[in-house]
Amino acid sequence: MAKSWATLGVDLHLEPAGPGLRRGLTDALRDAVRTGRLAPGTRLPSSRSLAADLGIARNTVADAYADLVAEGWLTARQGSGTRVAERRVVPSAGTVRRPRERGRPEYDLRPGFPDLAAFPRTEWLRAARRALTSAPYEALGYGDPHGRPELRTALAGYLSRVRGVHADPERILVCGGISHGLRILGAVLRARGVGTVAVESYGLRAHWKILHGAGLRTAPLPFDELGTDPGQLVEGWGGVSRSGEGNCGSATPPAERPRAVLLTPAHQFPMGSPLHRDRRAAVVDWARRTGGLVLEDDYDGEFRYDRQPVGALQGLDPDRVVYLGTASKSLAPGLRLGWMVLPPTLVEEAAAAKGGIDTCGALDQLTLAEFLTSGAYDRHVRAARLRYRRRRDALVAALAERAPQVRATGIAAGLHAVLRLPPGTERSVVQAAHWQGLALDGLTRYRHPDALADPLDALVVGYGTPPDHGWSGALDALCATLP
Amino acid sequence: MAKSWATLGVDLHLEPAGPGLRRGLTDALRDAVRTGRLAPGTRLPSSRSLAADLGIARNTVADAYADLVAEGWLTARQGSGTRVAERRVVPSAGTVRRPRERGRPEYDLRPGFPDLAAFPRTEWLRAARRALTSAPYEALGYGDPHGRPELRTALAGYLSRVRGVHADPERILVCGGISHGLRILGAVLRARGVGTVAVESYGLRAHWKILHGAGLRTAPLPFDELGTDPGQLVEGWGGVSRSGEGNCGSATPPAERPRAVLLTPAHQFPMGSPLHRDRRAAVVDWARRTGGLVLEDDYDGEFRYDRQPVGALQGLDPDRVVYLGTASKSLAPGLRLGWMVLPPTLVEEAAAAKGGIDTCGALDQLTLAEFLTSGAYDRHVRAARLRYRRRRDALVAALAERAPQVRATGIAAGLHAVLRLPPGTERSVVQAAHWQGLALDGLTRYRHPDALADPLDALVVGYGTPPDHGWSGALDALCATLP
Predict the structure, then answer these.
(1) pLDDT single digits (tens) B374-411
(2) Domain membership flag for residue A184
(3) Interface of A with B in 420-449 (CB under 8 A)
């Protein structure tokens, strides 16, 4: 049934009943706000009177209002009713938007994804054919939890050559990505009696959750203009580890000095700077002095544009640093392949925590080994680096021309940049971006709930995901949302 | 060109020019510091003088120094030049020692492996090519924890056609094999407050351990001449669940009535009989009446030789039975691909317990989907069934001729048989087999530590593993060890 809410000029196409009714109402109201038919500040009828008008249940209207308040389209204040939100950032009038699939943004600028359109399908299949043709029978059986020896050998050579990792195959444990590696390490640390892991003030919530799931607390280190500051680890822990929103889970032990630290030394995620050289040395010294363990998340170490990549921290002390790497950024997350280079004393514990058998598919492992040893991996990374660098350059140029007041940081490496915003504007800019059909994240999303420093307003803009032909359109949409 | 930087004992193997030159210098210096040839505190020559020494550009040296300062190997201070960082260089603890691999047996008759030599490599690669060529970009990204929709759709069709499973794609969760499925289900059951899972008196220790690892107890059901007897579930639990060797782990709850049961209804592992029809009905009735859950491990349901396979128990009540299947027996364990068909109420809990993202490689999932829908899977299973049946027949014939006193049971289906032995002889026969270069297992290995029935003496003889040409030699060796 189609109903017209004549007084406000809102056309409602409603299904007779069920969840479709609420969604129909929500969509119609959202559209009316988006297109300006409901002007900012307009007061909406009470849910009771609108429900009576439309002949539907009052709760359905109340629910639709609540959804739109949560999404930022409406505001609800005690005593002033429900109003259309005063949008502070108006999307540029000139942009013509194509209708898009519900839920799917036109451009996806969230960080953490490589350009999936550039996955080297032909070369991968070629490597798969060579690998499977020459694989021994036993490679198809239940595997050793360490992972296929062909892959561990290939990784040892690659990581020592390219990332300065002290790697030999016996130290390497293949896993299903960095998340899986952290799940394994979380179990190992907890079994060793560790209670708290120091983390960075900015990072991935999913990683903190994995550590919490293992029964560990996470305690953020300070972050200053030089980046993550491990000084508290070194000088003694001053009680930053505390209970808080970030430490969910039931079985977390009481706060204590961290005995492990999770870092992104080559390219802080998402802030983008490398760990300062003095601090690199300080972290390793701390680990040596106290028997602590450093978990080095080297998620995109291959992608540095203006000079040689910063070598892995693990090279400074392979017995105190666990190196974690992944094919998710260099090739594709769908492969679910990552690796850890472990101190020898941890290898068997980690293999047991992995489940005692290999949980990673043998064929992809053999294919990646072939891909590495044949040189196809190097060629792919080199080509990808050039492509991302061009995107980075286009981003910087577009900002300089069209949003000169926005400073891009963390642009020397990786697949994303951080765009600093005027204080207090992050939320509205992210909201405006969503109106533009642009999926992107504010920095707040990456801030540890217990972080001590003042929040910074910024966007985290990934440039991996849009395919090459979509990049300039994505840049246009981005610049249109910036203040 | 190889140059020796004689005064400092650093050997440099330098490429004539380009980025390799700088990298060669950086690597050589890093190695010299790591190995202690350049001692902490050593002052390095100025970049100008080293460059002159080596006949290379001064910038190359300055860049190499800067890289190593950034990595923490060197320090650069105004007025004191570039020095090797003050740090005790800890030599790596060296390679990890793992127990020496013992001599491989000449014939491997342990159960649980398919014939890996018969893995359809060419057909698999063909399917991989078709799957990867047509895959959408997003298939290479971080995946939905339910698994690829292509595979879930293909499995739904296959399982309902071949195994009588009530399957639709929305109920299916792709996992890394039955062990992984049980790990997920163990977490779900424990979170729902289940304390004890009834299991069969004979089964896989690895599966019981997974349930114990989730904090659950396992309590064995009786086993009689009709197979596993679920009568105790149905008539009330008589205290069979007790603490014992089988229930290791620290956090096991006190004994209680089982609220879930793990069974191998189509082909009891390892005893080989299907669950009696009256008992199938009784188990499902129990689950309905009590709100219990049945976990159906259908590890080799496709392989039945003398009549139609027994349909899946899940078909009797899809809301009370979780169906678990795997490609480990039909194709190869190395694929690490399995699947669960779940009651709708469990799907989201299981997806969350899987980790909230897909942990299984997308390419193998897409390939298996293509393999199923193209008919290649059916063709492969049919050919494998014929081959295993011939092996089974050869085993039965050899026993009839050369060890007529040994009775083979569980031979109607699957990839293994149980050879009953005179009481008290199992251990010596297994020992004798090892002396013959024959790897095989006694039945004791598969008996739950809390099983109530008297132990039976028997061998569990798998006929999947030896390649076709090795089967008659394996049979000779086996018959030579039998009493």
Answers:
(1) 999 999 999 999 999 999 999 999 999 999 989 999 88
(2) yes
(3) none
Residues A47, A185 within the same domain: no
CATH number at residue A71: 1.10.10.10
* Cβ-based neighbours of B137, under 8 Å, separated by 6 or more: A116, A117, A119, A467
Residue-level pLDDT at B302: 87
| pLDDT score recorded for residue B420 | 95
Grouping H, G, I as helix, E, B as strand and the rest as coil, residue A11 is strand
Regarding whether A165 and A85 lie in a shared domain, the answer is no
SS3 A88: coil
Residue B134: the pLDDT is 94
User: What is the reported pLDDT for B385?
Assistant: 93
Q: Does B36 touch chain A (CB under 8 A)?
A: no
Last residue of some domain: A333, A348, A374?
Answer: A374
A169 with A264, same domain: the answer is yes
A138 contact B CB<8A: yes
What is the rounded distance in angstroms from the CA atom of residue B154 to the CA atom of residue B163? 14
Domain holding B68, by residue range, is: 3-103
**What's the burial of A280, exposed, middle or buried (CB within 10 Å: 0-12/13-18/19+)?**
buried
Distance CA A42, CA A84 (A): 5
d(CA A370, CA A126): 9
Q: Residue window 191-220, chain B: list those with CB within 8 Å of chain A.
A: 206
pLDDT per residue as tens digits for the range B112-133 = 889 999 999 999 999 999 999 9
For the segment B55-79, the average pLDDT, to the nearest whole number, is 82
Cβ A358–B336 below 8 Å, yes or no?
A: yes
pLDDT at A453 (0 to 100):
79
Domain boundary among B334, B353, B374: B374
Per residue in B302-345, pLDDT tens?
A: 898 877 778 899 999 999 999 999 999 999 999 999 999 999 99
CATH code, domain with B406 = 3.90.1150.10
Low-confidence ranges of chain A (pLDDT < 50): 1-4, 6-7, 9, 11, 13, 88-102, 239-246, 248-254
Q: What percent of the residues of chain A are helix, what percent strand, and what percent coil, each to the nearest 5?
A: 45, 15, 40
Contact A142, A357 (CB under 8 A): yes
- Find the DSSP H helices in A320-470: 344-353, 362-373, 376-402, 426-435
A-contacting residues of B 219-278, CB under 8 Å?
A: none
**Are B191 and B285 found together in one domain?**
yes
Q: Over pLDDT 70: what percentage of chain B?
A: 88
Residue A113 within a domain: no
Q: What is the mean pLDDT of chain B?
A: 87
In a shared domain, residues A365 and A405: no
CA B320 to chain centre: 26
Q: What's the domain count of chain A?
A: 3
Query: Are A396 and A363 contained in the same domain?
Result: no
For residues B323 and B419, membership in a common domain is answered with: no
CB pairs below 8 Å between A and B: how many?
173
In this complex, which of B26, B132, B334 lies closest to A143 when CB atoms are compared? Answer: B334
B119: chain A residues, CB-CB within 8 Å: 137, 140
Please compute the mean of the pLDDT values over residues B462-481 and round it to a whole number.
90
Q: Nearest CA to A310 among A165, A450, A104?
A: A165
Does A306 share its domain with A425?
no
Q: How far is A447 from chain B (nearest CA, A)?
A: 21
Please tell me the pTM assigned to this model.
0.79
Whether the CB-CB separation of A115 and A465 falls below 8 Å is answered with yes
Among B49-63, B73-87, B151-165, the range with the most confident prediction by mean pLDDT is B151-165
What is the structure's pLDDT at B18?
62
Q: Is residue A110 part of a domain?
A: no
Within-domain flag for B395: yes
Dihedral angle at the C-alpha atoms of A361, A366, A368, A371, nearest 10 degrees?
-160
Q: Do A337 and B87 touch (CB under 8 A)?
A: no
